[in-house]
Amino acid sequence: MSTASEYTDPRVTRTIAALQRAVVELASRQPASRITVAELAARAGVTRATFYNRYSTPLDPLVAALYADLETGHRLEDRRRAEGYPGPELLRLAITEVADHVERFTSVYRHALDDPADRGVYDALVRHFNDYALAFLARADSACVPDADHEVMAQFLAHGFAGAIRAWLRDPAATKDDLVDAAVACAPAWWADAGVSEDG
How many CB atoms lie within 10 A of CB 39? Predict the structure, then answer.
């Protein structure tokens, strides 16, 4: 189990970064389900034992790398919200940040879509959006949010957005603006106005 001191140990930080870089490179060329631990460890310049000290399968560091990139966009969204960006503009910019993320990792996501064994990447995307939606709902202005089960709402939103990304990736004629326009059009009417509650 990782200790707090490990997270500040530069050697650990370098190892994690090396494994995440290596797995993204490999997953850009082949489905993550086909990447072996030996192949990944060799590319990252670490031993298999070092890999297993941190992860169970190559999917683990890949998902960690994807999540870290998505979180960068969410932090930017939080700063914009604190700066008072209007709801509709904030919504569009937040969706655009996610679209930019998918563009940065297009090869990874495309491989995941093409290989049924690689569903873990898509499932991780759904989990991320579900967690994001739950966090948003928890801190939103309750007067704007419908009185309904947040878990169910979050799953509905997460699967819908992840499904939109899948459709975009499968349609070579669809542009990033097409994805953003469609997602904004389908976002719940209350989302842009929910903002953050005063005590959030």
Answer: 15
Q: What residue spans define the domains of the chain?
A: 4-57, 60-194
Q: Which residue has the higher pLDDT, 128 or 194?
A: 128
Q: Which tokens hold the place of 30?
A: 């082949």
Whole-prediction pTM value? Answer: 0.86
d(CA 114, CA 158): 21
Q: Which amino acid, 116? A: P
Amino acid letter at 104? R
Contact 184, 92 (CB under 8 A): yes
Using the predicted structure, report yes or no on whether residue 49 has a pLDDT greater than 70.
yes
Was domain 4-57 assigned CATH 2.60.40? Answer: no
CATH, range 60-194:
1.10.357
* 97/191 Cα distance (integer angstroms): 17
Letter string b/e over residues 72-99, b meaning 16 or more CB atoms within 10 A of that residue's CB: ebbeebeebeeeebeeeebbbebbbbbb
d(CA 81, CA 196): 8
Q: Is 25 exposed, middle or buried (0-12, 13-18, 19+ CB in 10 A)?
A: middle
Enter the tokens of residue 71: 């979180």
CB–CB of 40/58 below 8 Å? yes
